[in-house]
Amino acid sequence: MSHEIPVVARGLVKTYGEVVAVDNVDLTVEAGDVFGYLGPNGAGKTTSLRMLLGLIRPTSGSAHLFGRDPLVDGARAMEGVAGFVEGPRFYPYLSGRRNLQLLADYDGGGARTRIDEVLDIVELRDRAKHKVGGYSHGMRQRLGIAASLLRSPRMLLLDEPTTGLDPAGMRDMRALVRRLADEGITVLLSSHLLTEVEELCNRVAIIRKGRILYEGTLAELLATASEQYRLRAVEPDRARLVCLAHPGLEDVQLDGDEIVFRANEEAVAALSIALGQARVGFISLAPHSTSLEELFLGMTESDPGDASTVQEAAA
Amino acid sequence: MHGVATVYRWELIKLATQKRTYLGLGAAVLVPIAFVIALAVQKGAGPTDVPLGRTLRDTGLATPFVVLFFLSIWGLPLITALVAGDIVASESQNGTLKTILTRSLDRGQIFAGKTLATLTYMAAAVVAMAAVGLAAGWIAWGLHPLTSLSGTTVPVGHSLVLLGESLGIYAIALAGVAAFGLMLSTVTRNSAASVVGTLMFALLMQLLGVLPGTESIRPYLLGTQFDAWHGFLRTPADWTPVVRALWVCALYIGTPLVAAYMVFLRRDVAGE
Question: What count of other Cβ atoms lies within 10 Å of the Cβ of residue A26?
Fold first, then answer.
């Protein structure tokens, strides 16, 4: 059973009346992945995750966790899976430990024996006897991780786990996710923070207005952008003519006093010779390293005619 | 079954930790105490126009029956609605429903555990009211044989049996209110609306029963079933209202519970 793929979602659609919150989403998370599900707020991330967890019914499409469909198999589909959407929620009038005891009983098995262990992992053991109503946001997030770990999951599904945390809290949370991933837990992490995904994830899916724009490895995504170069020349206009005439260069554009184009390394090397032969002096010719952030913004804001963002109807 | 038992146990623990539970149970025990004190202080005749009202000062055994009558109109329905209307809706509002639905128990088990916990609370309120009423009446007027609705004298021991039977059939009628509250709680996802709506439903059932022109449907209203226990207090016992209450209440309990169960199994659990 451990050979089953942690997440296979195909053609997931969720509409709320006229609003299409999630539009034909395919997701595949392989065992061992730290999968970043990236998109601006309201793009449909949380709605997708709710469908994966069986909390809401897809309008169409299907989701399987380790080969099980939550709509068909009910709670059995959650075997080996743990996580939370939209921030973990607990009974405020019960203590942290009491909340975990309740959830451990709902999990069955030996979950109760792991309570101290998971409280230690998230460093909440000394506050466990206090009511959750008095917990800070960060403590609740950590208790959420603890509650997930009670299930000894093979996959963790975390919805923006660092949202609302202070910088130290974010750092600690990311270190914790990193550590859990290193222990072999597959992680599906939604985020609107690029640095977070860059830091933690090996694979990403980018969603915007309910649609997946990209799914693949981070390295591949960054590689598509690294073919861009910038040229600064003494005489930009003449340099531009050389570039336009040079084979292997695409999308040649003047950007201020710089020329921007896309090309592979051979074409760039040939260009430097061509510029010399044409007696156009250049000051710099360098690859323009696009950050994930620029890529992300480019993808998610690439439709200037439609500036409105899809509101996540369920949120 | 194990899953349902787990949910049931934790629902009781959660009820025991929440203020509204004690608000309900507190009201259920304070009303009979206040009632007995008021009657003990004033020397008038007391409520002569209610069943067993004339015999109130003869024996403490009459007290729980009379209080039962007064609380049927809105007291016990409100006490029941406080929890029934809240038990699912509050978890929707707090977002804890998604927390417990992503563990290893099925939705059906969660719903069954919540239903059983609601009925347990409701039964506890009825029993607490009767026990405190009996104790208060005992202190005020002693424990003497009860005069039945047929005018016969019922020994203390048998009166207690009749009280138990009466509470049983009364609780079944009250479960109709609880079931309606659970349905509203599940469907509306709003605790306050469900509590108020449930109380409105109970009041409407009472109101329909006193409006002129409703005589033909009166035997089948939920409010009427709150008086079914009168049958036990006749000699010989009149089983007609009791048997009717059993099947009528089965409909009032079953219909909303099945509806709520279906909704709970399929509903989207999203943020509010």
Answer: 13
User: What is the residue-wise DSSP string for B172-192?
Assistant: HHHHHHHHHHHHHHHHH--HH
Q: Judge whether A160 and A174 are in contact, CB under 8 Å.
A: no
* Run of H or E residues at B36: helix B19-41
**What's the rounded Cα separation, in Å, for the pair A30 and A34?**
9
Among A188, A217, A246, the domain-final residue is A217
* B chain contacts of residue A315, beta-carbon cutoff 8 Å: 270-271
Determine, for residues B99 and A57 on separate chains, whether the beta-carbon distance falls below 8 Å. Answer: no
Which range of residues forms the domain containing residue A264?
227-288
Nearest to B268 among A56, A78, A82 (CB): A56
- Written as one letter, the residue type at A102 is L
pLDDT, tens digit (0-9, with 9 covering 90-100), for B8-58: 999 999 999 999 999 999 999 999 999 999 988 887 767 778 888 888 888
B18–chain A Cβ distance below 8 A for any pair? yes
User: Same domain for A41 and A144?
Assistant: yes
Question: Counting one residue from A and one from B, how many pairs have CB atoms under 8 Å apart?
Answer: 91
- The gap from C-alpha A119 to its chain's centroid, in whole angstroms, comes to 26
What pTM was estimated for this model as a whole? Answer: 0.87
Q: Which of residues 224-253 of B touch A (CB under 8 A)?
A: none
Q: Are residues A256 and A157 in the same domain?
A: no
Residue B191 pLDDT? 95
Residue A308: inside a domain, yes or no?
no
Number of domains in chain A: 2
A1 occurs within a structural domain:
no
CB contact under 8 A, A93 and B94: no
Assigned domain for A235 exists: yes
Q: In terms of domains, do A110 and A244 share one?
A: no
Is the pLDDT confidence value at B79 over 70? yes
CATH code (residue A283): 3.30.70.980
Dump the DSSP string for B135-171.
Answer: HHHHHHH---PEE-TTS-EE-HHHHHHHHHHHHHHHH
Residues A52 and A131 in one domain: yes
Of B13, B103, B105, B109, which to mutate for an interface test with A (greatest number of A Cβ within 10 Å)? Answer: B103
Residue B19: count of CB within 10 angstroms of its CB: 9
Q: Six-digit token pair at A254?
A: 């003047």
Distance CA A188, CA A196 (A): 13
Q: Are residues A177 and A247 in the same domain?
A: no
Looking at the fold, whether A146 and A16 belong to one and the same domain comes out as yes
